[in-house]
Queue: 2 jobs
Job 1
Amino acid sequence: MPNTLEKTRKKILRKRGGVLDGLHQNSRDSQRLHTAQGRDERLEAIARSRRRRDKPIIARVTYFQEAVRQNDNKPLTLEAIQAKISEFVHQFDQEYETMKKARRAGRAPGPKEDMLKLRIATLQKEYQNGYYLPDLTNENNLQVLDRWDKSWTYLANLAWVKITTTGIVKPTLFPPQSN
């Protein structure tokens, strides 16, 4: 959490002898406090958008971390990895179908249904072109993945690959590039 406002407030309190009540609305100190508060709000908004952007990758890695743990932290075969990818890609299909059936005939789909359809299509297209995930065939990488604590910075220690539906495995770098 940004703390510019607290630092600025402490400096002003120290300068004014511990009294902050007597600030004039347009004084320099008041302007400094206002600027610091605006900066803190901007930094918090940036951090919030970054967390929202990183959330899908973290959810993906969490899913594959659990898949590896179910396999006793042993490397997975390409077929098993592709089965897990397919399972992950089609995790929203049932929810989409129930929403589609619940909708009355002739009605336009709702925004949630549209978002699910878009998410499913995006995941399927990514799987066609190369699904981005940690390398689950490398023993050392699995040990690092097992110790992962759901932090974004720790993900750079993992080896990453892209796997297509045809079984082509290409090593890649972290973070994912929007190509």
Job 2
Amino acid sequence: MAPPVTVNTINPKVIECEYAVRGEIVILAQKLQDEIKIKPEAHPFEEILYCNIGNPQSLGQQPITFFREVLALCDHPSLLDKSETQGLFSTDSIQRARKILDQIPGRATGAYSHSQGIKGLRDTIAAGIEARDGFPADPNDIFLTDGASPAVHMMMQLLIRSEKDGILCPIPQYPLYSASIALHGGTLVPYYLDEATGWGLEVSDLKKQLETAKSKGINVRALVVINPGNPTGQVLVKMLSQSIRVRIDLNNKPPMVLQVYQENVYVPEKKFHSFKKVSRSMGYDEKYIHLVSFQSVSKGYYGECGKEEVIWKLPGLVLILVMSPPKAGDESYESYISERDGILSSLTRRAKTLEDAFNKLEGVTCNKAEGAMYLFPRINLPEKAIKAAGEAKTAPDAFYCRRLLTETGIVFVPGSGFGQVPGTWHFRCTILPQEEKIPAVVTRLTDFHKRFMDEFRE
């Protein structure tokens, strides 16, 4: 008797829903890691170097002390009444925990909250957004969810009614968007970022894609902007004002803006500017720009990926600490600034080291690492390698990444998992391995790349 649930009987939209950063290459990496644990000499490397996903603390990044102290006190409030707590926790951590608990019904983090999140926490977040942008923020417009991904899925569910509803997405894009569009039965309408200009937006291409979609009977329901870029690592400045003008032409279709790397900017000539700040500065208010913006506690300098997944018990607790960190004069201020700046400075150095290494490889070019946590180098593969990939029934960049993994233990994600201009090949690399491991990444990659190119040279 056949099992009731098989690949052939499940919802076909789930089959279309692919998520490259945890795909085939990563599954193989985990298998190799298990083999190394059992038999260390099983492979020509001692450890797997994961450069595939933005999961900072899994790669050794330490959490911010102030954040963890407040979280611990909120989850275990009886500590607030113990005398020894005064010596273990900073004074402002204790004060902040008391203030937060006073805003929670029952002073318990395990209780259900308002469906949008606790009002007092949303007030704090709104104040932080207003301080960031210089324009008012309404706490009633804020929804606290268990991560940015569920919020994106929620918006797709609201917007997509059939395959005739399209979502305008940048290519390359974070596969959350393509996966959620597929899952909800819509159509991805691509607009291509220009690699030659540092992954900038070509308005003419965007308008062309809109016209093409319209000719196919597709109703574009929203425009997606990712800033700083994932997987491309650019920090958008000019593109925001351009996309806002194009947005006006969409007859009030809401832009969805992923802004989870706000603090991750590594070049002095650029700064993060939110989509809201730019649009309001151009004179467009909510009557002209219906904006849905996503922020996350899993990125930035805090990297609370695991806390983001369980924070449904108390949505927004970490986020209010991010939006309202210690201030000068607080006991935790000096250590907070030291930890934050230390993480960001190290990420800046790692990004530059990897960028330089990629640009020294034969046939590889890599745009400047401006922000986020990723680099997206372009690789010009020899025809023999492309032919070999075809014989292996895989994409050429996936072929390269698989060989890289099995020979060096380095995990990159093929660019084909993010979308790219047809006929070009890329891979995404995070800058998150600890700084002392970056030289090993560079050495292993450099040696492998030379062997690979020699093997497939015409």
